[in-house]
Amino acid sequence: MDVTSAKMIGAGLAAIGVGLAALGVGNVFGSFLEGALRNPGAADGQQGRLFIGFAAAELLGLIAFVIAILILFVVK
Amino acid sequence: MAAEGSGIDPMHQFLVEPVLGRHLVLHGYDISFTNSALFMVITAAVLWIFMLGGMQRKLVPGRWQAAVEGMTGFVADMMNTNIGPKGKAFTPYVFSLFMFILFANLIGLFPLGIVPGWHPFTVTSHITVTAVLAFVSFGIVLLVGFAKHGLHFFSLFVPHGTPWYIAIIVTPIELMSFLVRPFSLGLRLFVAMTAGHILLDVFASFVVQGLNSGSAMGGTVSVLSFIMIIGVSALELLVSAIQAYVFALLTSLYLNDAINLH
Fold it and tell me: Looking at this predicted complex, what is its ipTM?
């Protein structure tokens, strides 16, 4: 296998991480909604924590994206 | 690289180039006025006009003043819930940060490309810009932390009530997570904006290429891509606001660590 095709496969594999982060972000919002519907009065006060969880889950997906871009454009 | 020969070059939109077309080099450094600098100036000017129109001190606010007061109230509220009354001194900084990032993101999405010779440029899609914003935030956290608590600031790395054998493991982890903060803060904004703009560019090229191919299949792809662009644009508007909010929120949390320790 030559280097270019190996890079393409590697970038594709790195992109799996983006999909997994999507599961994480969905889980954050899904769980929040589940809790918020049970106790709507407490939901507004927890919005900051919701977005902290969202930011943490999303960051890992973005890092996977950066790895894919690095493999495609930077690795020689 | 992504698609040689087919004409898609989604990275071209991020190219930093001089506005007037020629480079101004001084002692080996390129100091020409670039499109990045131009859009930062535009962002600051729009923000200035927006704030100026809102600072009217009318007892019954008009629409404009209500919009500005909504923004200031939103940030002040966030600072109050995350830091408490001591956070009031930092509200202007976090507000400027939030508004600059929000306006830069939104102006980057503005369809300026329909004006001939103009290319929209997203300031926040460059890690040089977002990293500087993140490092300023981190620097303020360090300054405030050491000025307020002195060397006691290092107790941030040992959670309250940890037994010593766990502290040996936890302290390096806490130190690492503290030191990674500015990088993750800058990286998040930069990658979120870059990824969205690449996506929009790729679908826009699909529309053009589908129309150019002239076949029924190309036309279908073109229409579907156009519908997709509308959806992605709406998503990008949401992401612009969320990323600005997350940046401000995390800055306020880090400031809370520095001001109140644990």
Answer: 0.83
pLDDT, tens digit (0-9, with 9 covering 90-100), for B206-242: 898 888 887 888 889 999 999 999 999 999 999 999 9
Alpha carbons B152 and B256: distance in angstroms, whole number: 15
Total of domains in chain B? 1
Q: Is B4 within the bounds of a domain?
A: no
Query: Are the Cβ atoms of B78 and A48 closer than 8 angstroms?
Result: yes
Task: Identify the closest residue of chain A to B82 by CA–CA distance.
Answer: A48
pTM: 0.87
Q: Show the domain range for B215.
A: 12-260
Give the up-direction half-sphere exposure of residue A27: CA atoms within 13 A in the CB hemisphere: 10
- Flag whether B3 is in a domain: no
Q: How far apart are CA B149 and CA B196, in angstroms?
A: 41
Q: Which of B81, B187, B191 is closest, CB to CB, to A48?
A: B81
For chain A, list the domains and their CATH numbers.
3-74 (1.20.20.10)
Element (H, E) at B63: helix B63-82
Q: Do A63 and B253 touch (CB under 8 A)?
A: no
Q: Do A48 and B82 touch (CB under 8 A)?
A: yes
Distances (CA, A) of B230 to B183, B200, B204, B210: 32, 9, 10, 17
Instruction: Measure CA B188 to chain center.
Output: 8
Question: Closest residue of B to A74, CA-based?
Answer: B1
Contacting residues of A for B187, CB less than 8 Å apart = 59, 62-63, 66
Distance between CA atoms of residues B65 and B53, nearest Å: 7
Question: Taking CB atoms and an 8 Å cutoff, what residues of chain B touch A54?
Answer: 242, 246
